[in-house]
Amino acid sequence: NQIRDLFLQQLVIDYDHVFCMTITKTRSPIHDNALQASFAILNDYKPVRQAAGYNSPFALRVLDTQNLFAAQAVTAIEAVRLRDSNASVQQIRERLEELAGNVHGYMVTRDLYYMRARARHKGDRSVGLLSAALGSALDIKPVLHGYRGETGPVAKIKGFDNAVQKLFAVVGQRVRAGLMTPTVCVSYGGELDELRALPGYAALKQVCAEHGVSVYESVMSLTGMVNVGKGAVTVGFADGPHRFE
């Protein structure tokens, strides 16, 4: 608690406006907890700032990204771009809220049994035993889609390599059609050299380069890997409604 309080004090001293972007509230209590904490901070920040010699107001807004994994990064990258372009706080807020409802997250995992076990541990029954058993026995890999707080399969493809190759091809199609931001975010549950060796990934990066879209790569967080297993691939980008085909 002391470390938390010191962090919060430094936060309200160092900044005038803060945007806190969280994982979708349909999958985690983090958003609601952050929202409650923001109320306390906004009630108590004035003495802290005044003691540091600041009399200007402090603003804190908690934003539900309505997505998870790599898709969370899309709004964060856009927030940095807007800040660097000297956009106003209102412009940033309005843009991030618009994007949150238009970010698509896709995932292919290697081990359905593992993901089912982790989901059940958290009380999530979205991955059934029969689906996991059949998928593992037949090497069927679902492509999962996260959008506006909802997640579910949009395709079932035989073989992990085939599934990620199809995913990268679909993302490439959306890049050619034109994204809402020039950003594709990718996270991988392992070394990035393994990600770069996956079929279709080099072609996706080439398409992005040709269309002025930046690809942001990251190793999946430990929390993410614990929940979906080693070797999972997630991709996020901002786009209008579309079909996975």
Binned strand content:
15-25%
Unreliable spans are none
Strand segment tally = 8
Arrangement of strands in the largest sheet: 5-4-3-8-6-7
What would you report as the Rg, rounded to the nearest angstrom?
20 Å
- Overall pLDDT, averaged? 88
- Beginning-to-end CA distance, first to last residue: 49 Å
Major sheet details = 6 strands, mixed
Pairing-aware structural class of the strands and helices? alpha/beta
Topology pattern, helix = H, strand = E: HEHEHHEHHEEHEHHEHE
Helix content: 40-55%
* Mass-distribution shape: elongated
Number of helices: 10
Give a short synopsis of this structure:
With 245 residues, the protein is an alpha/beta fold.
Task: Describe the overall structure.
By secondary structure, the protein is of the alpha/beta class. 49% of the residues lie in helices and 22% in strands. It contains 10 helices and 8 strands. It has helices at residues 2-14, 30-51, 72-84, 89-100, 112-121, 129-138, 160-177, 192-196, 201-210, 222-228, and strands at 17-22, 59-64, 103-108, 140-147, 150-158, 183-188, 214-219, 233-238. The strands form 2 sheets. A 6-stranded mixed sheet has the order 5-4-3-8-6-7, with helices on both faces. The longest helix is centred in the N-terminal third of the chain and has 22 residues, at 30-51. The protein is elongated, with a radius of gyration of 20 Å.
